[in-house]
User: What shape does this take?
Amino acid sequence: MTHCRKHTDTKTETHCKLCREPYCPACRSHHLFICEGCAVKVLIMFFIAMIVVSYAAWFGIF
Assistant: This one.
């Protein structure tokens, strides 16, 4: 078992499904089994995709 990056005294139980970094149960805030860093990256990519689709719909690019 390895230790969490944020909580050095806590042993990890699982790894992030995207980046394979270990994290402890205290760091898990959702049921997606991904770390906070990857969750933020996924949200940013989702918002960028929404912006691109809205511009495409608004200006009739596609």
The chain has a mean pLDDT of 82. The longest helix spans residues 36-59. DSSP finds one helix and two strands in the chain.
